[in-house]
Amino acid sequence: MRRGPAIAAALACALFAGCSGVMDRPPGRLAQSLPSDPPTLNPVLATDTTSGEINNYVYESLLDRDNATLELKPRLAESWEISPDHLSYTFRLRRGVRWHDGAPFTADDVAYTFERIMDPKVDAASLRNYFRDVKRVDKLGDHAVRVVYSEPYFKALEIIGGATILPRHVFDDGQDFNSHPANRMPIGTGPFRFEEWKTGRVIKLVRNEEYWGEKPDLSGFTFEIIPDQNIRFEMLKKGASDVEGLRPIQWARQTGGDKFLRRFDKRRYWMPNYSYIGWNTQNPLFSDRRVRHAMTMLTNRTQILEKILLGQGEIVASGFYKFGPQYDPSIEPLPYDPAAARRLLAEAGWADHDGDGIIDKDGLPFRFTLLAAAGSSFARSLALILREDLARVGIDMSIRQLEWATMLKLLTERSFEATQLAWSLPITQDPYQLWHSSQRDRGSNFIGFSDPRVDEIVERARREFDEAKRDAMYREFQRIVHEEQPYTFLFINPSLVAVSKRFGNVVDYRLGLDPREWVVEPWERLIQW
Fold first, then answer.
1. Closest Cα partner for 240 from 54, 496, 20?
2. Could you read off the pLDDT of 502-529 as tens digits, one per residue?
3. Is the pTM of this model over 0.70?
4. How far apart are CA 63 and CA 158, in angstroms?
5. Using CA atoms, how far apart are residues 185 and 52, in angstroms rounded to an integer?
6. Which of 198, 304, 420, 502 is the least buried, fewest Cβ under 10 Å from its Cβ?
7. Helical H runs in 175-247?
C-alpha cells in the first residue's frame, strides 16, 4: 500500500517537470532516487548500500579515505599513533566539533560507539566480526581514545578509523538500541543534517550550516523512493532527478541522443564489486558440491553477459576485486556445459525416478525458489534464462522478488534456498565476514559455508602484515572456494551513471563520485533549467 502513492507521486513529479521544464526545487538541492527505503539510518546496524549512502552525508568517522590517493586521512580524529606491535591505536580527536543538536563531540561518543558494536545484544554481527580482537577501549581525556587489540589485525586502523561514530547522549537513554527512534532520525556531525523521512516516499537532508569543516556547495539532498527502474529513468530524463544509475540498455541505446547529452554527462567506472548466485549449502538441495558445480555449469554467463548486460561487465571466478592484486587470474571460471552438469547431478543421485519430468532424490523433487531484490530487472532476466536451462535437465526453479528489508530478513533467518545478490567491496578485503564458519548463524555468511582450511587461512591472514604473504594465502582461499562452488560467481560490472550538467567539479574516483565536492554553477542558480 505504501508503494502505490510513492510511484504515483513520482510520476506526477516527472510529468510536472516535463511539462514546465522548470525544477520544482531549489537549484542547489540535488535530487536522486532510491530503489527502496533503507532498513535503518543507524550505521552500526545498517548493512545495505542505500543506508550507507545517506549515512555518509550525516555521520562521520575518525578517519576518511582521500578520494584521489585512497590513503587514510584525518576526519574526526586529527592524528593517530600505532604501537610497534600493532596492538594499540591512539586517536587524538578534533576539538570544536558539535553534533547537529549542538552537543559537543567527545571521546565518550567514540567509546560508546565501539562498545555498542561489540555488544552481542546489538544487531551488528557483520560489523562486529571486524572488532572481534578488540580487547578494550580506553578514554584518555575528552579528546583522546586508545583502542587495544588482543591480536594484531592488518585492517585494524582502517576498521576502527572508518567506523561511523554515534552520539552517546542521544542513544544512551535507556531505550533499546536496535529499535531506537534515532535510527530513523539521525543526528550526526557531518556536512548535511537529517530533515525528514516519509516512509516509502522521500528522505531529505539539508546542509549543516554549523559544520566544523569546509561546507559543501550543495544546499541539500532529496531522495525519492522509486522501486521501478524505468520510472527512475523517466524522472531523470524529465529533470525531476539529477543523478541516476543506468541499466546497460539505457547506457547503450537510450541515452545517445543530442537532447539527453546536452543535459547529462555519462560516466563509467569500475568500483570493486561482484554479483553472484548463492546456494544455501545447509539446504539438502545444495549440500553436495557436485550439485553446486552443476548449477554453475548450467548458468550460461556468457549469454547472460551479452543478452542482459550488453557486454557491460566481466565474468569473475572469485570474490576478490578483479583488478586488484589479491585476485587470482589463474582460476578459470567453470564453463557452461549442460552435459557435464547432467553427469554431476547423476553422480550425486539426482534422476527422474518417477517420470514426472523433475529429477528427484530420496523422494525429494529438485524444485527451488531463487530469492532476489524487488525492482532488479537484471535478476528477473537472469532468472528467466536460468529457469529455461534448468528445466531442460529436470530442475524446476521459480523466482521471488522482495523489498530489500523483507529479503534481508529471510537471508538473516537463512529461510531461502538460493539467492541472487551482489557485494560492493572495500579497497583491502578480509573474507572473514562472508566465509568464516563463525558467521553462518548471524553474520553475512548467509549460505552457511564452512570449511576448516578456509577458517584457518582467513584467521592467519588477519594477523599477516606482509601484503605479499597475505595475498598468497588468499589465492589458496580462492582455489578452495572455487572447488566448493558455494557461489556461482557472475560478473564485475562497471558503474554506469548519468549526472546532470547543472553540477561542476564532478570527478570520477576509483570509489565512485563524491557529491560533497560538487558545485552548482552561478548561472544555473539563476536559470533553473
1. 20
2. 999 999 988 889 999 999 976 655 444 4
3. yes
4. 8
5. 15
6. 198
7. 229-238
Question: What tens digit of pLDDT does each residue of 172-205 get?
Answer: 999 999 999 999 999 999 999 999 999 999 999 9
Please count the CA atoms within 13 angstroms of the CA of 529 that sit on its side-chain side: 14
Which residue, chain included where needed, has cell 549515512?
55
Is the pLDDT at 317 greater than 80, yes or no? yes
Distance (Å, rounded) from C-alpha 255 to C-alpha 133? 50
The C-alpha angle 322, 327, 333, rounded to 5 degrees, equals 75
Look at the block and give the residue holding cell 543534517: 193
The per-residue pLDDT for range 384-433, each reduced to its tens digit, is 999 999 999 999 999 999 988 899 899 999 999 999 999 988 888 999 98
3-state secondary structure of 56: helix
Distance CA 518, CA 504 (A): 6
Cβ neighbors of 267 (< 8 A, separation 6 or more) are 495, 496, 497, 498, 499, 506, 508, 513
Signed CA dihedral, 226, 67, 130, 140: sign only: negative
Quickly state the pLDDT bin for 11 (edges 50, 70, 90).
very low
What's the grid cell of residue 399? 523466482
Q: Calculate what percentage of the chain has a pLDDT beyond 70.
A: 94
d(CA 478, CA 316): 12
Cα atoms in the Cβ-side hemisphere of radius 13 Å centred on 201: 13
Contact yes or no for 457/472 (Cβ under 8 A): no
Q: Which is it for the CA torsion 340, 344, 347, 351, positive or negative?
A: negative
